[in-house]
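User: My advisor, Dr. K., asked me to get a structural model of this assembly before our group meeting. I'm new to this, so sorry if the format is off. These are the inputs:
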Amino acid sequence: MVVGEVAVETDIIIMGGGPGGYAAAIRLGQLGKSVVLVERDRLGGVCLNRGCIPSKALIHAANQYQRLNDLGKMGIRLSQERTTMDLGIWQDWKEGITSQLNQGIAHLCKENGVTVVKGQATFLSDDRIGVETDGDFETYKFEQAIIATGSRPYIPSFIKVDGEYILDSTASLLLQEVPSSLSIIGGGYIGIELGMAFAKLGTKVTIIEMASRILPQVAENLVKEVTRNAKKLGMNIKTSSKVEKASVVDGHVHLQISSKKQGSEVVVSEKTLVTIGRIPNTEEIGLNRAGVTVGEKGYIAVDMECRTNVPHIFAIGDITPGPALAHRASKQGIVAAEVIGGLPSAIDSPYVPYVIFSEPQIAGVGLSREEAEQQGYSVKTGKFPFSANGRALAMDETEGFAEVIVDAESHILLGMHMVCADASNLIGEGVLALELAARVEDIALSVHPHPTLAEGWMEAAEAVLGHAIHIVNK
Amino acid sequence: MLEFKLPDVGEGMHEGEIIQWLIKEGDAVTQDQPIVEVQTDKVNAELTAPAAGVVKKIFFSEGDIVEVGTTIFTIQVENGMPAPETDMGEEEIQAAQSGDVKVNAGHITSKPHLEAVRVLATPFVRQMAREMKIDIEQVKGSGPAGRITESDLKQFKENHSITRENVYNNDNKILQDKATMKNADRAKRLENEWEERILLKGIRKKIAEHMVKSVSTIPHVTHVDELEMDRLKEFKNQLKAYSDVKDIKLTFLPFFVKAIVIALKEFKTLNASIDEKTNEIILKNYYHIGIATNTKEGLIVPVIKHADQKTIFQLADEIRKLATQAREGKLSIDQITGSTFTISNVGPIGGLHATPIINYPEAAILALHKMEHRMVVRDLEGVIRLMMNMSLSFDHRLIDGVTAVHFTNRIKELLENPIRLVVEMR
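Assistant: The format is fine. Below is the predicted structure of the whole assembly, which you can bring to the meeting.
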């Protein structure tokens, strides 16, 4: 800092332009505040540029590619020429999607009076930040600040991501060619989503997971179909296995793996993807100068209004304790903005839905049966398999089921989960039902459109009441 | 910031009265330091600090009635913010660093995140509660399965403002609270009227609720009889020298307790209750006798536990101690709950007979009246005897009139012939 420097004054500074940061910026703009949004890379953050959107673009392409193999039974004959996947062209298509979204956010920010500044922001004190852009350094003075710096893939110290042989999730979405073989360290949702997509594109995928099953954080009954499909896709799943060492030998990655059952072995693949978790970006933004307390693991604790221990500084998204999900960040961003704008806003619901773009998809909200029982509820559940759903049959997507978890006493819904094609779109009904504190009868008595997969919810709800139409009630 | 909510320190109490704050805003407190004295279900309870810190805000004044679950004060805890929760456990990070591979730590979970708890209300109603500055967790829902509705919020707001109006302070003087027009109007109106209004609160409110429940649930029937007390009086006088040595003030009450316990053992339905939920009669093989005691705060019923296992002197001693504690307001919840049969001794005050109200959910209550010399007929001759009436109210669902009369006959037999009482005592 130089003596006599002039700081740009603004009501609110937002550090980070991801789904939390930009939502907060737009909401604050709507509330008539002057906002400076600082983003070091591209608006939209990990979600838009390196996470949700690009990965779904890949998964969608892989699904289409694989689908071609199954068209024969519907009478669709393809020309004899072998189907191929050009990942380079896919990259351009994906880039088109993310650019369009980037521009959309930039436009919305502009229309709402948000000043977007490109650069790396750090706190200088509890009312000033410095922003470094291409060697320039600008200071901003703020009344309130929102920290929304997000997270990055966690890479253990014994592995070095080189972007060529050993990849993190970001690098895996930048590949120009479909790898012939890919080993994935970590069988969580990112590993499974990307692993299944590459397997569909013809890659020989090996998943190495330390827990006894893949997707260990999802209720076991929801994962079975996915595990079965992974095997059908030719994926090699090694559970209860640890990676001891990773090295690149002659253009291939050698992973030394040990497991109690199999002992020690070496997995050789063209590339390795490391997806074992994410860590919050809270180290290099000068939080100590602002007096913001950071917990041991780098997370910033916040209250229901997303306030940190410094009352005029808020934190949202992956840097706060809780699941690192874009929709949670957006909600927090809007709440923080409204609190700053003087509105009575708060994170007042425990329900954050989750979606896994596996094959088939898994999505849910609320408690699993086990969790509900642990919390002392007397639980009733109802389940409806999609093999009994007309639309699912007509779509040739008969795998999976819808499951509702209900408090036996009051019939209030406690959780709704499903495994099936398009579960990601269907879980919206579950979120609304739980937020409205609906009873299972409310779902059962609502007319659901036919023929749709959404009928699965109605049938599962009727199953709880003992009168589902399309299955035998036990 | 830690919010301290009024806990249920009694058995299913709904509200308490703030008697005295032992600290003030800004005071530093240590964990377990007494913070506030609360009058709960007929007892005083001292509530202590759940953690060390500084008392930030006190929400109620002395004399206020507060519902259970309401935040009554906040403490800024010493360590500032609570320790953060994180989804990537330390173990996982260490595991990853040491080469162990674990899952994509915690970025998907079906668990609700920890900031918010579920309230059975729609997002709009929750938002409305915040706008109305109502802690929605305190609102009882009237909707299906206890859902909180918009009208519940309105109702709550209304009730809450009445409670907080605080029309009277402890001396029943009108508090000239000019803070709101509503209060001022009300105070003015009261001055102009030839009546005094006192908020039904504290013990009096508890008693009122309890009485209504008892009478509306139990079909009461009262049966009255009279006792001749001369022999018991003589017997008690004979024991006086002995009780003086032991420094025990012997009254008639321990004898009554003993006689009643003996009779209760023979007529089990009088030491019983009905469980309306399970539709069962509970016959109790323990004899906890409640002694209704008049205090300046109102009627309180301390309980003599296992009265059948205590001697006359032990009973005398315990009755005296309980009565003193009751008058000083120092009884614990344990000392006023769990009775199986109640004696109401109104004799010292006067009266001929009464219809005592059963201490719900017990099966009967015996009121003992004034002892006085009356002219009675014995062997066709008028004689003067020391007489006392007793009124037994009983639950007619459980006890027939005949049983009730047999029961009082038995008590009469024992008290009129103290020798028999002594030989039948265990």
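One thing worth pointing out at the meeting: Chain B touches chain A through 52 residues (CB under 8 Å).

User: Perfect, thanks a lot.
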